[in-house]
Write a structure and sequence with these properties.
The chain is α+β, with helices and mostly antiparallel strands. Helix content is 33%, strand content 21%. It has three domains: 95 residues, Luciferase, Domain 3 (Luciferase, domain 3, Roll), CATH 2.30.38.10; 101 residues, ANL, C-terminal domain (GMP Synthetase, Chain A, domain 3, 2-Layer Sandwich); 98 residues, ACP-like (Non-ribosomal Peptide Synthetase Peptidyl Carrier Protein, Chain A). A hairpin with a 7-residue loop joins strand 10 and strand 11. The protein starts with a strand and ends in a 6-residue tail after the last helix.
Length: 322
């Protein structure tokens, strides 16, 4: 099915990873539609609907699929392609992924295709596949498998490069660099196989590199961060932003640390500069005249949050010691 055309008259820009869909052919029409069926404005991704003389009547022997994919709108029959595209201001359609590759990470809707596009823009990266991986006891994790042209390309280097290209929640928490990515018999990327390999890699990486909090202050910070991010077993080397943190959550973390750990001098900038529990605890401790005070406050905080409501009420009614 051919419904659009993109004319290439000049050398393709180096940062392009694929050609746009272009503009509709004569006697054809296109829509970019959101979840409510409304048209999306420029730059906002939505499902690609097509209509015109080149559209089939339905799926042979599949009335259920025909009813799902062929829909009537404004007096025309439209075919829902399942592709995610967006309009450029000049009317050009750009492919950004598949509707079935749209996931939710830390409350954000993310198109895996956009993550893959960003990965391919990193120098040395040839191919990339992103997937959402389930982790026991935690929220789902964004992971990616990358095939690189250069042996010097590393997972950490890719993450650093992505920080200039996409928001923090779109940077995969786990990245594996491989020599090749498998394809199906139909010549498409074998996403199921990649997802299985990533699941194994993520599972193996969960515990070996994990360092649990070793001081009351580290434990309290890990608890606060984990509560905000909806995660358990936060390690002291886990990156706040790689786990799904952002500027809003950083602001909330600062407010809680100030109030609950009696650390009024902490700033949002401290979270950005010290992204791990270990680094943040060190910064907080360095600013204290009494090295043990924050650990004492943290111990009290951890004790209180471990009490039930009745115990807290009973403790609050006890007379103060003189």
């Amino acid at each position: 099915m051919h419904n659009s055309i993109f004319e290439v008259t000049e050398p393709i820009p180096d940062d392009w990873t694929a050609l746009p869909f272009g503009v509709p052919l004569p006697n054809n029409a296109c829509r970019v539609v959101d979840d409510t069926g409304a048209d999306c404005p420029d730059w906002v991704p939505g499902e690609y609907w097509v209509s015109g003389r080149g559209i089939a009547r339905g799926y042979r022997g599949r009335p259920d699929l025909t009813a799902e994919r062929f829909v009537e709108h404004d007096g025309r029959i439209w075919y829902r392609t399942g592709d995610l595209v967006r309009y450029w201001p000049d009317g050009t359609l750009e492919f950004v992924g598949r509707a079935d590759h749209r996931v939710k990470i830390s409350g954000y809707r993310v198109e895996l295709g956009e993550v893959e596009t960003a990965l391919r823009r990193v120098p040395g990266v040839r191919t990339a596949v992103a997937a959402l991986i389930a982790v026991s006891g935690e929220s789902d994790v964004l992971a990616a498998q990358v095939c690189a042209d250069d042996a010097s390309v590393t997972a950490e280097g890719i993450r650093q490069a992505l920080a200039d290209l996409v928001p923090a929640h779109m940077i995969p928490r786990h990245i594996t660099v491989v020599e090749r990515i498998g394809f199906t018999d139909a010549g498409k990327l074998d996403r199921r196989a990649v997802a299985r390999e990533l699941e194994s890699a993520v599972s193996q990486s969960q515990r070996p590199g994990h360092r649990a909090p070793s001081t009351p202050l580290q434990s309290a910070l890990a608890t606060i961060v984990g509560d905000l991010l909806g995660r358990q077993n936060i390690g002291i080397d886990d990156d706040f932003f790689a786990l799904g943190g952002d500027s809003v959550l950083a602001t909330q973390a600062v407010a809680r640390i100030r109030a609950w750990l009696d650390a009024p001098d902490i700033m949002v900038a401290d979270i950005f500069a010290n992204r791990t529990v270990s680094a943040l605890a060190a910064v907080l401790g360095a600013g204290e005249r009494d090295p043990g005070r924050l650990d004492q406050v943290a111990e009290l905080y951890l004790e209180v949050i471990g009490m039930d409501a009745e115990s807290v009420l009973a403790a609050s009614q006890q007379p103060a010691k003189s």
